[in-house]
Amino acid sequence: MQSFSGLHRYIMERGCKFVMEREKSMKKTIGSTLLLLLLLSNVMTLFFVCNSKKAFASGGNQSEAETWEPADDMPHLSTPDENDITENEAIDIAKRTLVNKFGYADMYFNDSEIECGFYVIPPEYSEYNCDEIWRVELRKQETGTAPFMVEMSGDGNVLMYKAPTTLPYYGNEDILAEARPAAHTRVDATEEQVIAELRSCMYELGGFSELDIPALLIKTHFIYHERFCYGREPAWYSEIFQGNKQIGKAVSGFDGNLIDIATCDQEFTNTIRKGFWDGVANDFDISDFWYGSLSEKAALSEKWIPIVQSLEIEDPYFFYTLSNSLCIYASSIWHA
């Protein structure tokens, strides 16, 4: 299975490392969740140090720039030499990669906010066969602070690319080979419902709307894969065939609602079910728990215990959303 590690343990995903850690059992302990949050804090701290170095190097206080020298065994910004492509060339390659892989128009990224850096990557952090990379981030106003991202070797060979809400793509993924089958539950859509919803959506999508949609063959697979909803809940992965030729693929949530659809030579731009981040914890003020007295925490637990128990019965995937996991933790640990 594709491993999402290396450099991305250090600076990637901008505070989303916990979603790259796969659930290894159906009953992940809350203690593990808190450990992931601790790791997240460490990653953000290291990332701040790296960005601080970049800021100082681009015009900050010189004495501070000299203070923030990274250790030799940590990823750090560097300067390309004559054997490496230029920054502008790296940005052009990144734009072309994103246009080709995610199906955007050629001009889509022209108004992006762009960050580009040349990094030295020590072997213990590198998952690539090179120790220097260009890293390009492109931010669009409509996608918020999360960037599109491309990493490439110093000579311009693309190594990784991703959309704002996806895990990294490395260009060698086999979804079905890497997935594990999911057991159908009472809350999951049926195969027939998934196919009907997918056909309905295809009538409105460019590239598919002009085809004989009723004649297309759709094969569905109900799976867990870390790419879809971070592996915390199952998804429907569909292969779309015209005759004997596969022409597309789609991913839908366990509820049957379409998440994204793509041609065979492109990647999914969205891999998270709408509503995935919603949960009971949206109504839960964690500050009331962390900063309350022992008796206040106990009272808060009494309030949330029946709510959590009820939702766990109604939704078998309730436990696996991180915000809900915090709520479950708060509703139980202080129960006397």
How do the helices and strands line up, and which of them pair or pack?
Blueprint: H1 30-57, H2 62-67, E1 76-77, H3 87-102, E2 113-120, E3 132-139, E4 148-153, E5 158-162, H4 175-178, E6 180-181, H5 191-202, E7 217-224, E8 235-242, E9 245-253, E10 258-263, H6 286-290, H7 294-314, H8 322-332
Task: Write a short abstract of this structure.
The chain has 336 residues and is α+β, with helices and mostly antiparallel strands. It is built from eight helices and ten strands.
Walkthrough of the structure:
By secondary structure, the protein is α+β, with helices and mostly antiparallel strands. The chain has helices spanning 30-57, 62-67, 87-102, 175-178, 191-202, 286-290, 294-314, 322-332; strands at 76-77, 113-120, 132-139, 148-153, 158-162, 180-181, 217-224, 235-242, 245-253, 258-263. Strands 1-2-3-4-5 form a five-stranded antiparallel beta sheet, with helices on both faces. A five-stranded antiparallel beta sheet has the order 6-7-8-9-10. Helix 7 (294-314) crosses helix 8. The protein starts with 29 loop residues before the first helix and ends with a helix. 28% of the residues are buried.
* Beta strand %: 15-25%
Q: Output the helix-strand order.
A: HHEHEEEEHEHEEEEHHH
What distance lies between the first and last C-alpha atoms, to the nearest angstrom?
Answer: 43 Å
| Radius of gyration, taken over Cα atoms and rounded to an integer in Å | 22 Å
Q: Which geometry do the CA atoms define?
A: globular
- Runs with pLDDT <50, length 5+? 1-66
Question: What structural category do the secondary elements indicate?
Answer: alpha+beta
Instruction: Please report the total strand number as a whole number.
Output: 10
Mean pLDDT: 76
Count of helical regions: 8
> Helix proportion of residues, in percent?
25-40%
Strand order of the largest sheet: 1-2-3-4-5
Main sheet: strands, sense, barrel: 5 strands, antiparallel
